[in-house]
Amino acid sequence: MDARGPGAEALVGDPGVPQARRLAGKVAIVSGAGSRPADTESGIVGNGKATAILFAREGARVVLVDQRRDWAEQTRRIIDREGGEAILVEADVSDDGSCGEAIRRALDAYGGVDILVNVVGVTGPAGNAIEVDPDAWDRAMRVNVTSMVMMAKYALPPMIAAGGGAIVNVSSVSGLLGGHPSLLYPTSKTAVIGLTRSMAAHHALQGVRVNCIAPGTVYTPMVASRGMTPELRDARRKGTLLHVEGTAWDVALAAAFLASDAARWITGIVLPVDAGATAARLQALSPRSDGGPPDDDGGPPDDGGA
Ligand SMILES: NC(=O)c1ccc[n+]([C@@H]2O[C@H](COP(=O)([O-])OP(=O)(O)OC[C@H]3O[C@@H](n4cnc5c(N)ncnc54)[C@H](O)[C@@H]3O)[C@@H](O)[C@H]2O)c1
């Protein structure tokens, strides 16, 4: 029988039940815990859903925050079925009062807050500096950046009062590199890295660690909904060193580590979760250093580069 219990759905890339419950006794707030559902029965999940499910498996009591109640209900059903514990808070995290209310609901239900994972993020308006609409820019910056500050504003006091905690913010490799077709998305994701480092410095001596994850081209329903062709999907996979497609579970596993006491000596970092995409520039037509022919797909040599 599946270790996750009878009736468990097959979710693509699902790592299963962890051996150690690294978040036992912790209360974790996950924003964006709903995630867009897959259009097809493909079993792929978004970053917030995978994070919330994995945190519950690791023993945390999870507060599922999302503006889409229906999407977050689906996350709660999975956690319930697996015997985990979660409550759902419908909230728009771009609204200061709603962020305060979400943290109050967590305190009422569970008496404290140990972990905050800010997953909410939107692609935002298209366009370069000449084209982008300034009002749409402001709205998207509020969702992608200001929301993380407002959630922290209300989560930090109870964390500090209890002796500390951990915050994990979701950025993107687009925040580390140029080349994204729009200006808003990479700018907001770079800002997430800046706020992570600044908050890590502000709150270190209060026992709060603040880190961020920069996911690469993970395949989530949000990505699939943008009309991904099999060819483009394959090209994204081959744009990494490992030539392996990532899933939201890869992001969730990194978040669980950074939120856990196993990362007690880690704060202020940006952790790329990207199959090595930002570690090296793939040069399809460059000569190989061993004098062999160039790799036809830009990937590592057949011997794995050893
Ligand atoms: N999918 C990728 O390839 C990828 C890569 C790098 C980074 N990321 C980041 O990961 C995060 C999640 O991505 P995803 O692919 O799972 O997307 P998704 O669209 O499935 O999930 C985003 C969730 O946030 C919620 N949300 C949006 N605005 C909100 C608001 N104002 N208040 C409350 N909830 C709100 C949505 O309802 C949704 O449930 C984003 O920050 C995204 O930038 C994704």
Question: How is this structure best described in words?
Answer:
The protein is of the alpha/beta class. It has a single domain (27-273), classed as NAD(P)-binding Rossmann-like Domain (Rossmann fold, 3-Layer(aba) Sandwich), CATH 3.40.50. 37% of the residues lie in helices and 13% in strands. It has 8 helices and 7 strands. A 7-stranded parallel sheet has the order 3-2-1-4-5-6-7, sandwiched between helices. The radius of gyration is 20 Å and the shape is globular. The chain starts with 26 loop residues before the first strand and ends in a 33-residue tail after the last strand. Residues 294-306 have low confidence and may be disordered.
Major sheet description: 7 strands, parallel
> CATH homologous superfamily name?
NAD(P)-binding Rossmann-like Domain
Strand order of the largest sheet: 3-2-1-4-5-6-7
Number of helices: 8
Low-confidence stretches: 294-306
Shape summary: globular
Overall helicity: 25-40%
Average per-residue pLDDT, rounded, comes to 91
Task: List cofactors, ions and other ligands.
Answer: nicotinamide-adenine-dinucleotide
How many β strands by DSSP?
7
- Cα-atom Rg, whole angstroms? 20 Å
CATH architecture: 3-Layer(aba) Sandwich
**Coarse structural class:** alpha/beta
Distance between the termini: 39 Å
How many domains in all? 1
- Strand fraction equals 5-15%
CATH topology: Rossmann fold
Top CATH class: Alpha Beta
